[in-house]
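Team,

Forwarding the record for the chain on the shared tracking sheet. I've put the sequence and predicted structure together so nobody has to dig through attachments.
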Amino acid sequence: MSEITAAESGAPLAVRLRPSSVHQLLGQQHLLQPGSPLVRLIDGEAKHITSVLLYGPPGSGKTTLAKMIAHSDSREFVELSAVSSGVAQVREVLNEAQERLNVEGRETVLFIDEVHRFSKAQQDALLPGVENRWVTLVAATTENPSFSINSPLLSRSIVLTLRSIPDADIATLIDRALTDPRGLSGELTIEREARDALVRLAAGDARRALTYLEAAAGASESEITTATLNKAVDRVIQNYDRGGDNHYDVASAFIKSIRGSDVDAAMHYLARALESGEDPRFIARRMMISASEDIGLADPQALGIAVAAAQAVAMIGMPEARIILAEAVAYLATAPKSNAAYLAIDAAIADVRAGNAGPVPAHLRDPNSGALRDRAESSKRDSNSYIYPHDLETAVAKQQYLPDNLVGKEYYQPSTHGYESRIKTALEQIRNLLRGK
């Protein structure tokens, strides 16, 4: 293990334990395959790559990877914050990098954190340095580069997408921090329940895991317990296992509360899941299913709102995603309910699986396929030929659509709830027209 420098001795645990080599990295294995752009950059072999955008959630290792790229092959590392740096500072860094390259022959890695916060003018100021390769730009962002980065800069970059750190790797990181001389040096242990809770709280964020661990260590004498962890992070640790029964129990209660139109209970289980470190994208996916299964055409807008919420959650992430989820939950829980479409497709599938799928009626078949191709003209004059509904005032023609063995079958039975009550009335008229009544 490397020794702790004087500068590092008072640094946060997350800084002290920052990996110095690829072998120490946890997570992001999809980017670390031999010969990949990232590995070649770290090894100093990718001279032609002039700009890299590291896109991923907080605590996924963007800064760590940037420093690995910089420290390989004795490159100079310069860091700018998009929050506090202006155009003048960007130009100053580029001028110094150009001079360093010309005089010393040494490359400069310019790392910009939260680059999505840079204005258009600030991003444009980077272009000369990137185009002329005065710097190797490594920029980090938690927002989709397609929306947050100017097209000229994006076109000169490769985008590497980082993922949240898997729970197993977060657990390994916690164990490493407890024993590593740069960390807690074996002075403390952690009980199993507290360790599992810390993994859940981290929610794939390595920095958060180490920050919470350090806070809990400061409140513990020899062992970190759930109680000391609760005090350290100022929140109650929920008994919630993302892979176990409690996870499914809360998810089930959440969906059943929406189905039952109890908005308050639905909010409770939403909060319970989020506070326990549940992936908000999982919650959003369950809500999309609920919008179709439990609300359906009683409120046709429900699915659109659920899909919009899922897209927004994926783009924004926590903690703001909680607001989006809450809005969608309130809408779904208070919307009128119908499972008629859900029952209809299951009933139709049951018939198909039972073999009740007769030949498609001749007038519905493609006239350009098989034997019908030769009879295309004659079938137009046939009394049983297809009737084009738009030619009729009602736009509904009396003709058979189902196979012969299923004529008269009614899979969809709309409810009288919400918008579906209007569909019920209209459908009765449509079915009468189809049958010539």
